[in-house]
Amino acid sequence: MFYTSNKLADIKKVMVSRIVRLYPQREAENMANMLIRHYFGLSRTMQQLQIDKRLSESEMLIIDKAVKRLLTAEPIQYVVGSTEFYGLELDASPEVLIPRPETEELVDIIIKDNRNDNVDILDIGTGSGCIALALKNTYAKSRVTAIDISEKALALARKNAENLNLKVDFRQCNILDAEACSTVLEKKFHIIVSNPPYVLQKEKAQMADNVLKYEPPLALFVEDDDPLLFYRKIIRFAERSLRPNGKLYFEINENYAEATASLFDKDTFDIPETMTDVHGKVRFLVVRAN
After folding, report:
1. Are residue 248 and residue 128 in the same domain, yes or no?
2. pTM for the whole thing?
3. What digits encode the pLDDT tens for the residues 157-180?
4. Domain total in the chain
5. Does residue 206 sit in the same domain as residue 154?
6. pLDDT tens by residue, 30-41
7. Each residue of 74-110: b (16+ CB within 10 Å) or e?
8. What is the 3-state secondary structure (H, E, C) of 110-165?
């Protein structure tokens, strides 16, 4: 091990000095705080108050193993087995994509845009269930359905729903077979939301190792020759499954915003509206059904 002292303050300094090899200083400090909070139940404030706390050898071993995992570029959410999304604590695993802050923005757009608490909502490609659960937590009277092609992802989503005591109807369905999904779901929705795969294979070179090595490619990537595949299929599904005046919400690839907006039939949908994220990137699309 790398630790010459078992005092919490000293161990934390060594943790940061190791993690900073791979991550910026502030991010390394945050990761050290997260590990200590996860394994020993100490908030950042409690860590400051207990700087002289001494860890046992077995506790130091736990920390050492966790830091070694981080140094392989494994995301900290997978190391600790959890993540936070829109105020909810969710289990995380390599079976599902780690929810991004941009997706929290998407949820926020939906909530600000819809005041009715008694609606039918569908989340397509639910993964960990983060969007569906955040919306159910907000719209308690609403009926929320969520679909995914991966049974392993659905198992984790159901576990998250059980842990949070939130009722969501999770179903296995491949949205690329839009007609079959319509048959499986057998209802219409006021709100359909999706954050489908939209990263092109050629964009992999721009992505960090912690994403490429550990997060599920099925949830991230589309082929370069058909970047809008999922959007076309979801729009076709929405043509059948959105209620009149219902809304479709997408997270999108900023490089294909105009192309995505052009997919909508003018007789079926209003003019799509694109919106930027906090970084100024065109990241969201909202459209109402006629």
Report:
1. yes
2. 0.93
3. 999 999 999 999 999 999 999 888
4. 2
5. yes
6. 999 999 999 999
7. bbbbbbbebbebbebebbbbebbbbbeeebbbbbebb
8. HHHHCCCCCCEEEEECCCCCHHHHHHHHHCCCCEEEEEECCHHHHHHHHHHHHHHC
